[in-house]
Q: What sequence folds into this?
């Protein structure tokens, strides 16, 4: 059995990690870390775990934890993992970080967008960007994985094949995305109160959202060129889900079958990527509670553009599910172990 420690087990992503790992045949959680609830029973924080989890919450002592487990998930705010990790810890344990601390290779870009000093830039080169469908072989060899963000997972996978094949003009790419409120975390914040969110939809982080450089960097690797794009997120009154709608100019005239063949080239054998049938647009309800990414597209011959659409559950494929998928690869397990989650509907 793989011994697991979670730092940040009482946030939404941490809670989802617990839920998924409870159904994992090869993993056992040994440490439920939560600075806010030290000594409190985990099931008292998440009552859905009553008579399922008997453990108490512990602290975030990564050095002590590293000697007790095989892998540590850090589902924590930006900056914490980088402030705790060191070479001695990485020599003992694998780390999957759900924050942005190791996603961007350029420390200056990280500090510009996240407005904090990076505490462990020496590990940026080594860290593997944990988008399994793209970096699978590198993940298998990694000891430090940067789990991608939720918006970025959806945005990158939706456009990746077309960027890789040069089918879209990257300078024209615009990404419009909507997320449920769980993406903002479990902390109490005025803009996330029920009365603020219900019966409302709003854009935020316009031209400044910190997932922008992550999307640009990864799609830039795919396209083989520097990518600068517009990414605009929106908050919608639902618990879970992300829908990304992406627009770009086509570089040549194609039909639906041509584009579908490009997606199939990259995703036909991918367990968790579902490219939908012609004229079917993804919906967040179709992936809720699952590790799937649903992708659809529509060619607009009138404008010479293609509209790409992707949907994920932000807490599963956008966070905890993807982290477990990375863990499975790192330990040589079946990639889908613990993730055979049928989407919930309604």
A:
């Amino acid at each position: 059995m793989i011994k697991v420690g979670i730092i940040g087990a009482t946030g939404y992503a941490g809670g989802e990690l617990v839920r998924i790992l409870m159904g994992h045949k090869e993993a056992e959680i040994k440490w439920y870390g939560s600075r806010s609830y030290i000594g409190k029973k985990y099931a008292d924080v998440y009552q859905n775990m009553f008579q399922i989890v008997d453990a108490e919450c512990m602290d975030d002592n990564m050095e002590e934890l590293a000697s007790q487990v095989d892998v540590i998930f850090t589902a924590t705010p930006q900056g914490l993992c980088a402030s705790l990790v060191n070479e001695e810890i990485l020599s003992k344990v694998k780390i999957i970080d759900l924050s942005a601390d190791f996603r961007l290779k350029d420390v200056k870009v990280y500090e510009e967008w996240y407005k904090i000093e990076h505490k462990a830039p020496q590990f940026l080169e080594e860290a593997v960007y944990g988008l399994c469908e793209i970096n699978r072989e590198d993940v298998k060899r990694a000891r430090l994985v940067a789990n991608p963000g939720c918006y970025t997972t959806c945005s990158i996978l939706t456009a990746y094949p077309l960027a890789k094949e040069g089918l879209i003009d990257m300078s024209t790419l615009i990404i419009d995305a909507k997320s449920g409120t769980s993406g903002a975390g479990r902390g109490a914040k005025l803009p996330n109160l029920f009365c603020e969110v219900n019966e409302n939809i709003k854009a935020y982080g316009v031209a400044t959202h910190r997932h922008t450089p992550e999307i640009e960097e990864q799609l830039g690797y795919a396209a083989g060129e520097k990518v600068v794009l517009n990414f605009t997120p929106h908050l919608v009154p639902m618990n879970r889900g992300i829908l990304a709608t992406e627009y770009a100019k086509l570089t040549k005239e194609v039909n639906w079958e041509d584009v579908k063949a490009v997606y199939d080239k990259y995703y036909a054998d991918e367990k968790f990527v579902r490219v939908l049938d012609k004229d079917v647009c993804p919906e967040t309800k179709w992936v809720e509670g699952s590790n799937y990414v649903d992708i659809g597209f529509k060619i607009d011959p009138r404008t010479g553009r293609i509209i790409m659409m992707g949907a994920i559950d932000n807490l599963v494929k956008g966070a905890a599910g993807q982290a477990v998928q990375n863990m499975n690869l790192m330990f040589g397990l079946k990639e889908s172990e613990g993730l055979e989650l049928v989407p919930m509907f309604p």
